[in-house]
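Q: I'm writing up a methods section and want to include an example of the input and output format. Could you take the sequence below and give the corresponding predicted structure tokens, formatted cleanly so I can copy it straight into the document?
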Amino acid sequence: MNKPNMSTTMGPLSRRSFLSGGAGVATLIATGAGATLLLSGCSTDSTEPLTPASSGALDPVTGRYMTAFGLNLSFVEVLVAQERGYFKDLNFALDIKGGQGTAPAIQAVLGGSVDISRTSAINAIVAASNEGAPLRTIGTVRQKSQFDVCSLASKPIKNPKELAGKTVGVVSAGGSTENLLDIMLIGSGVDLKSVTRPITGVGTAAFELAKNGQIDAWISVDTDRRQINDELGELYYFNTDEFAKIPSDTYNVSQATIDSGSDMPARFLAGVLKAMTFAADEANWEQVIKDLQVYAPDVDTESTLASMPILVDGWTSAGMDNLLQLDEATWKSGQDLLVEAGVVKSALPVDKLIYQKYLDDARKM
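A: Here is the clean output for your methods example:
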């Protein structure tokens, strides 16, 4: 069985650092109002892909996939597809890499070191709209935001306006959480420069930083928030969708992949759809966790079981028939919000941001 490449070529990130690469690679730089993507050597020519081969007659295909941040429960659907053999059934061999943030994941797919990346819609929109990056979204993993703004229940921060003058942890520099923070602050009339944003990553470490007074609040993945609130200490939190309704995390490919005519992305999505259907069934949750533990052996079974309802709800909130859907209305309104906040210079037609055909083909496989 094809196991993941646990290493990554990305070095450690510091806030506001250049995330740079070689020819054909993108660089995403955080700014006071969002992010700017610098491109080199990327083509924007477009053609339609070939129709996928019929079931049972699929030629072997390989692919490379990078998560947004490590290998953990948030990305379990691809790991389940790998371990349950759903990709193998489609004659598809996938190499899986753990990423170090949404910005490097975009860099990797544009630079050609991976074929598909898991990133946030915010960063995908910024890349395409601000700098003309040849990047297209092929599936929306969660149909609602996975991010909560958390603070200690004893020192609650109840809305973005109360973040003025505070220290707020973000997952990574130039990533979706930093951009979400900027959008919420701008929408609430808060001076961006008044808010300090250390990198607190994923997991439970931010809770200890808050207890020690090093941060006032932080943006957390909802499954991490659940674990902290249930096991470590009471939190006050609100979901980012309450103040910045934008498409959540996504799968993305480069225009070069579309131009190649390969049906590899459709096979990837077909395997993921099967994995999500399997993992959405509570009867299968213990097996889902065993599959995750192949890649993350230290994952606690009981804690992860308790987080499964939150994860599945994010996938299925638009209904089981709409897994991975690319809702055009949400993409349009989300991009409009980014424009209003000054994160995106001007809006693109939605069909320049998303590419529906792979998902349509995947549903037939």
